[in-house]
Structures are given as structure tokens and as C-alpha cells.
Design brief:
Layout: E1 5-6, E2 23-24, H1 51-54, H2 60-63, E3 71-72, E4 76-78, E5 83-86, E6 90-96, E7 101-104, E8 110-113, E9 116-126, E10 132-133, E11 140-147, E12 153-163, H3 168-175, E13 183-192, E14 204-210, E15 218-225, E16 229-232, H4 233-243, E17 259-261
Parallel strand pairs: 3-10, 4-17, 12-15, 12-16
Antiparallel strand pairs: 1-11, 2-13, 5-8, 6-7, 6-13, 7-9, 8-9, 9-11, 11-12, 14-15, 14-17
């Protein structure tokens, strides 16, 4: 059974030196396996309500019973495993594939859920947030995407709300967002470390779900942070300008339990 963890990583240090300019990477996209950027989208005839009909490979998007994201209205308190984040500093490298802004990460950073290890692969940004609490959606959501040695996904979802607090890591990302689909930005002199995207309190909700984009594969382990991070409103607005709306609506729980760490 696949597991999933949303992975997200960002900043450690910034050295002011001329970095590489944003450059075109083509239109191949950086979606999950089986999902080319041209195959689906978030609006119109290729939007979320049509994903399951766009390709036989996407049928779980409409037929699956363990889909993500979800609205969290009730949860069951449990003594759940501690989430231990071991992220290295990495040079800033992000792409705009027309669907998400994706922060790419080199091998060697990982999360442990108890004794189980998941490698961090990349970090995605969504506006507005995908997971909701009692129907309320955060302004943004960051996904830290991990996989274990067997290929099982574990995703960490971090809700983001607009406010006044400064986040140094997100500031570095915000300043260099590739504005157009097919663009990439890379700068070896700008360091990032995704642990600085996490809220101070690491309490979380856990449930079994799916990838929240085609092919909507199930068996993903989700860890949704119970506390949001706050960032300046202009950060959120810039992501909205670049990405537009790129969230999948919430899906039925179909009897799945949502557990809350104690």
C-alpha cells in the first residue's frame, strides 16, 4: 500500500550575488508520474471535475474512495509517531510548470515517521489551500512531498495564512518566482532549508488518501499540520498572480478516520 507525505523545503542562508536568470524549460511539466502538464489543469474542461474522464490512467480521480484533499471536521486523538525532519540546506532551484511552482530538492534530506524514513523529493505551492478545517481554506498550502525506498508517498501539508509575520525562507522564494509557465530559476548562492517552512508546533492530522492531482493514486499517507504559518499578505498575492487558482476541491472521506496527534 502506497503512502504519501507532502514534502516541502525551503531556506537556510542567503548570499547576495547574481544568480542565474529565470530561463525556459519547455512545456513538458513536472507533474507526478503519469500526469503531463498538458493533460489536465485546474480550470474549465480539463479542471478537477473532469480529471477522471481525461485519461484511463486518471480514473481514480472520479472512482477512487480514498481521495485527497479532505475537509477535516472531526478527528480522533491518538498517540501518533513523532515527525522528525532532517533537511539539508540546498541551492534554490524552482520551476513553473504551468500548474504549480515546484521547489526541487537534491537527495539526502528526509523525514522520519517513527522509525520509517521518507526522502524529500520536492515542495509544491497551492493557492488557496487544498485541505480545509470545518470548511475553511487557508490562503495557501505548501506540500512537502516524500517517498520511501519502496516508492510509497508521504506528504506533509502546511497551511499558510496571510498576516504580518516575516518568513525568511518564503521571502527568498517569493523574490525569485518564475513568472511564466515553462520557466525555471536556479541560484547556487541562495540557500534554502524547508524546515523553516514548518510551524513551531508540529501537531498534525493524519489520514490515508491520494495524490491531489492526476493520476490521483491512492495509498498516500497525509500529515496535515494543525497549525498554520503566517506570512505577509503580499507573498500570498504574488503566488496568486503567478499561479492563479491551483487547488483541488475537497473529496468525501467515505468513512476514513482522521487521527490527531497528541
Amino acid at each position: 500500500m502506497m503512502r504519501a507525505t507532502l514534502v516541502l523545503a525551503v531556506c537556510l542562508f542567503t548570499m547576495q550575488a547574481p544568480g542565474l536568470q529565470a530561463r525556459d524549460i519547455g512545456a513538458d511539466g513536472f507533474g507526478e508520474p503519469g500526469s503531463a502538464a498538458a493533460d489536465w489543469g485546474y480550470q474549465g474542461a480539463i479542471g478537477p471535475e473532469h480529471w477522471g474522464k481525461l485519461s484511463p490512467a486518471f480514473r481514480l480521480c472520479s472512482e477512487g474512495l480514498q481521495q485527497s484533499p479532505v475537509d477535516i471536521t472531526e478527528s480522533q486523538p491518538r498517540r501518533l509517531p513523532h515527525l522528525a525532519f532532517q533537511y539539508r540546506s540546498n541551492a534554490l532551484h524552482m520551476v513553473n510548470d504551468g500548474l504549480v511552482i515546484r521547489l526541487l530538492y537534491e537527495p539526502g534530506s528526509y523525514m522520519r515517521v517513527g522509525s520509517h524514513r521518507y526522502e524529500l523529493e520536492h515542495v509544491d505551492f497551492h493557492t488557496p489551500g487544498e485541505h480545509t478545517k470545518n470548511g475553511f481554506a487557508p490562503d495557501m498550502e505548501i506540500h512537502l512531498v516524500h517517498r520511501d525506498a519502496a516508492g510509497n508517498y508521504a506528504l506533509v501539508a502546511i497551511p499558510v495564512v496571510a498576516g504580518r509575520r516575516h518568513n525568511g525562507l518564503l521571502s527568498r522564494i517569493w523574490q525569485h518566482l518564475p513568472a511564466r509557465p515553462g520557466q525555471e530559476y536556479e541560484d547556487a548562492y541562495i540557500g534554502i532549508k524547508p524546515v523553516f517552512l514548518l510551524p513551531p508546533k508540529k501537531d498534525y492530522y493524519a489520514y490515508q488518501g491520494s495524490l491531489s492531482n492526476p493520476p490521483c493514486s491512492e495509498g498516500v499517507s497525509w500529515f496535515v499540520m494543525r497549525h498554520a504559518i503566517e506570512v505577509p499578505a503580499q507573498y500570498v498575492e504574488r503566488f496568486r498572480q503567478v499561479l492563479g487558482q491551483n487547488n483541488r476541491p475537497t473529496q468525501p472521506l467515505n468513512g476514513r478516520p482522521v487521527l490527531a496527534s497528541q
